[in-house]
Fold:
Amino acid sequence: MIDPGALLGPLWTLLAFVGLGWLAARRLAIDPRPIATLLIYLIAPVTFFRGLLLGEPTPHYLLLTLALFLLASLVAAAINPLARRFLPPQESAVLAFSSGTGNTGYFGLPIAMVLLPPEGVTLYLFCLLGVTLYEFTVGFYLSARGQFSVRQSLAKIVRLPLIYAFLAALLVSGLGIALPAALMDSLAVFPSTYTLLGMMIIGMTLGRVAIREIDLRFMAGCVVIRYLLWPWLMLVVVLLLQTLLPLSDELALALLLIGVVPMAANVVVVAMELGIRPEKGALAVLVTTLAAPLLIPLYLGLLLSLAGL
Structure:
């Protein structure tokens, strides 16, 4: 059984950031939209670029990134038409985007560092990068389609710098270029800034939410996808891989952890940037995050047992 105490540190830290965001919105009247733009167009690409370089990508690691990118994209593509049947366009777009991702970075990475050895953390990191790549390509497109045409949505993706940060990191690593240590040290502030601002945006958005904006049907859809679909989907993936090839315990745990984290804070960041109901995404993210300390230990213990680990 996973110790729930291992989750309390990351959880309370993230909730404290959400609280700071709420205070900033209520007391200082700070507009979160420029912060969302800053995250998407500057802080996230630099964080992604640095993470790839430090992880020293190999074909094996990049295969994990590709596999998680494809899996997240397939889940979102399957949920998208279902969401459009039951929800208005903007809400369905947010639900489709959220269905392919989770809080693998802000929440999952600190837990991975507690539960996994260094090699396992590296495996988890490259899985995480695949989910992040989905968020800023396929996921961003699905979100944009909530109110933009196909051409406009594709144009918005082409302008996203994270794609080019990914390609630049692969080029630098492939050519064996060693960036100056002083430069890499200066980039170390970006991951923590990314986490802080990403979670604060949730609080800023919640600070503007009225009771009438609570959408139980939308929230139920988010909870079902995040805490019913994804955990069992990742168990199926692990069991399938175990039958096809030798699967290390570290990689199996990394994959299962991807499946049990709460909703991604980037749901709110992207929705804020595109202007598509960020307040509903913020409420759903908060609910799934509050449920995480109870559900994650139970889920991981059960899934590990079923996977024979």
Remarks:
- The longest helix spans residues 216-244.
